[in-house]
Give the backbone structure.
Amino acid sequence: MPGGAYKPLSEDDIRRIYDTALDLLENIGIGDPIPEILRYALPGGCVLGDDNRLRFPRALIEDLIDVSAKEYICYAPDPRFDKEVGGQKVYFSTAGESVSILEYESQSYRPTTLVDLYDAARLADTLEHIHSFGQPFIAAEYSHDLYVHDMNIAYAELAGHASHSRLELLKSIISNPLLLCSIPTWVKRRVPETAILHHWRLPHCLTAEIWRGQCAGDGQAGRVGLVVDVAVAPQAGATSPAALAGTLVQCFAETLACMAIVNLVRPGLPINFGMWPFISDLRTEHSVAAAARKPWSWRPPFNSATTSDSSPVRPAG
């Protein structure tokens, strides 16, 4: 299905947001960068100030935009479900990582289990308009051990779904590509040229600081060759300016920083550019600028379809 018809911003608005975001990265930068990021950022042209803030020169950002992937093949365990990502193509995926699920018969909530995830994967596998399967909820029975949890999540997703899978994975798992990409061995194709997994992360407000686990995971995913889904989600009036224009600028700058880091680690690695700016009152539903993705169509955009807590079925993913 093609997208891009809805254009709420003028060309002048787009240019102002773009220029201001690049000014933020060049003059304010990102706080508290971890050594794993500095290993690539400093030789790549970033500048670390006396205030321990990592700054990205405008020319560097624009060079990395040029080398970043504009389209890529989204590989699946079954080659029939491989998809070309880029341009105006629109695909739908599940997501959420909820901790509870609604039992229809009792109309009550209970913790989600690994079997729930497997059943959801099998259900999505039969729905023609679900093109990729992202983890809709956790396996609460394994939540005491994140390594065991993530390993079982990976297995359940790949066992239940023949299309591409999105996973938020621990660095300890990503750092072992043979272990990661042999789950299960019967769906393994070539790695990393045809990786059948996305590494999905939801960083918080990056202009304040770089979340250590986020960057460590993204850096390792870049070296392994997994497609990286980045979803930067500041909340207007809470972790970003109340004015939506300010939130757009901040969100765009933070997402550009993620794009830059991934491309410094591995130039040209596919990354889904996820601007997820929210309004802090989630009863009003949806992110404030999903339509603003299209103006920066030089890279595959990535956004949520709904983020409301007003719906009674929201906890089910």
Notes: Residues 244-265 form the longest helix (22 residues). The chain is about 35% helix and 15% strand. The first strand starts at residue 30 and ends at 31. Confidence is low (pLDDT under 50) at residues 182-196, 199-213, 289-295, 308-317.
